[in-house]
Structure formats: structure tokens, C-alpha cells
Design a protein that fits this description.
Blueprint lengths: L1 H20 L9 H7 L3 H13 L3 H7 L8 H25 L3 H9 L7 H10 L1 H4 L9 H15 L11
Helix pairs in contact: 1-3, 2-3, 5-6, 5-7, 5-9, 6-7
Amino acid sequence: MKKTIAQPYLGILLLFMAVTFSAETALAGCGFGARTYGRTLLAELFAMGETISTPFNSSSITSGTSGCSNSGFVNREWQETFVAETYHQLEEESSKGHGPYLTSMARILGCPESLHPTVSEVAHQNFSSLFEITTESRQRPKAFLSQMKRHIESNPHLQGQCKLI
């Protein structure tokens, strides 16, 4: 008896979820499930379950290999994590004006490869403002990233070139 009462509610919930996830602004249409089943309403129901339950899907979505776009949230989270984990290396390389961590940061910010040296140069030229001691130590990586983005956007050679800022 309880199963028959719950079944219509479950059907409505699944239909609502399918409509929500198939909206153009959602991440529907990417991932293993969407590649397997397509983009119809019924297929979205199967795709959601398949996408959620596939163990490798989360890494394929964030790495861009499953047809998913780079959402602002994923990019911002990845940028913040990268800077937090490599903050001291970025500080050292910024003092020199070059290095692999600065190059990786330029790549993560979506700057064309030809402009990676310019990003490193901007970090070097603005070293003192990027690595202010007055900022609380746990907030320094976020402050650095925020300041770096501002310096990139105000640089005439880089303005509008780095797509993930």
C-alpha cells in the first residue's frame, strides 16, 4: 500500500529532476550518461543516474574530456586550489619573473600560450602588491589570485585574452 502512494511522488520527482537537469543552463548534455543516451527528456533520466553513478565521470567532467563546458564555479574552485597548494612556489617564481608554476597558473587562467611569459612578467613587476605581508596568512593565496586577475585585466597586452578570469 505504501509503495503505491510513494510511486506517483517518485515519478513527479524524477520528472522534475529531468526537466531541471535538461535546462540549457545546467550541466545536462555532458558526461558519460548524456553521451550514451542523448538529450531527450526520457534519456536525461537515464543519463542522470549513469552520470552520477559512473566512478570516473567526475574527473572527466572537470578535465573537460566528456563534453562538459568549463563552468565558472569549477574554474574558480580549481584556480583557488592550485594557488593555495602552490602559493610558496608562485611567490618564489614571481620574485624571479619566470617558472613552471607561473606558466601553469597562466594556463589555468585561460591565457594563450604565447602570453604565458607576459603573465610571468606581470607577476614579477607587481610582486610587492601580490605578496603583501599584511594579509592574514590563510587568506594570502586568495588575495594573490584576486590581485593577479586584476593586474592581468589592467595590462594592455593581456586585457581580455585570459578567458577563465
